Amino acid sequence: MEWMERTNPDETDAADVKQHARPATIGNRAMSTFSAADEEKQRGVRRMKLTALGLLLFVALVYVLATWASHEGAGAWAGYVAAAAEAGMVGAMADWFAVTALFRHPLGLPIPHTAIIPTKKDQLGVSLGEFVGENFLSEDVVRQRLRAVGIGSRLGAWLAEPEHADRVTAELSAALRGALTVLRDSDVQAVVGEAITRRADAQEIAPGIGKMLEKIVADGGHRRVVDLVVTRAHDWLVLHDEQVMDAVQGGAPGWTPRFVDKKVGERVYKELLRFVTEMRDMPSHPARGALDRFLTDFASDLQSDTDTRARVERLKGEVLGRGEVQDLIASAWTAVRSMIVSAAEDERSELRLRVRASLLSLGARMSVEPRLQAKVDGWVEGAAVYVVTTYRHEITSLITDTVAGWDAEHTTKKIEANIGRDLQFIRINGTVVGSLVGLLIYTVSRVLGA
Prior knowledge:
Blueprint: H1 13-21, E1 25-26, E2 29-30, H2 36-71, H3 76-103, H4 116-119, H5 121-135, H6 139-149, H7 151-159, H8 162-182, H9 185-202, H10 206-219, H11 222-239, H12 241-250, H13 258-281, H14 286-304, H15 306-321, H16 323-345, H17 350-368, H18 370-390, H19 392-405, H20 408-449
Antiparallel strand pairs: 1-2
Helix pairs in contact: 2-3, 2-20, 3-20, 5-19, 6-18, 7-17, 7-18, 8-16, 8-17, 9-16, 10-14, 11-13, 12-13, 14-15, 17-18
């Protein structure tokens, strides 16, 4: 029967080996040739074919002998044996045809509905893709499977282990360093600079500054600044009295006597020092009150006066447009990146220690808090459902397109090598069952005929 299972009866085993060695293609890439395991499976298929063929030849021989014995008057038993053997041959041939029709045309004849796998390969791929889509990529199935896994509790227990938290921290640090290394500073600086500038241009700053200044004045926060300024001014005047008097004398008219200029300079210096001293020591000094009123009015103008707000906007545009400011904005990214990279590389850095502590804390909470576990499970389920529902067609297309790209002959041989041995049992069972059924039919016929 082995010759009956070849598409070409003249094929040899050498031709089979040559055919197996020839790679098929999947799309634009070659499918790998038979592995050693595939070759071993194919040898098992051949052995089972020989076994099934041997059983067929055995019942055929029994049929010949039983028929001869019946003609020679051996007795009624010869008819029973011949009937059983005849039915066994029919069952064996029918099952041989069925098994062979899966992989090739029996006897090389183009009988309809044979060579199912090579001729229906693409349809099988489509059906397989639809089956996977309907039974594995449905929302209900994904949710049930993920809910049964209990990702939240398992992940929490895993993260609660210090060595696992260390591993995740190291992986996150490596990923962060890699991402920052890949990014080009010039590109990021341009994006950061453009984003800050665009945001500043789009947002009027005067009202915000006015509200902030109004609150500072109302809370008395500006008084500490005034105290610092007048204290520093007093100390400076004490240390630079000669310079102040020289400056006053230098601005005097040339026709005034020098001793008058000196007296005027000394007087101006003393009055200026007295004013600053009183302003430093007297919280209720009139100058302080005047400054409070000025700042209050200025805060109000920043919020409501059109001219003041327009001048602030023009000043803002001039400041942002300066090259020094743009360079400062751009250089901020370099400083931030360097700081993050250094922190990510240092195992004892505050960044990595905080990340590790956060992971441990999160793992401990997830392992014992059902609400947090349910929340994590919900996030994972939602993400998975979104992927399978949004990209179900792309996922199933991967199956159908891959199967469609396989070489039909190679695919047939590959499948036959993996399941052909089990299919040969169909032939053996067909021979045995056919014999028993034939014997039963012959017995019933004899009983009814009697």
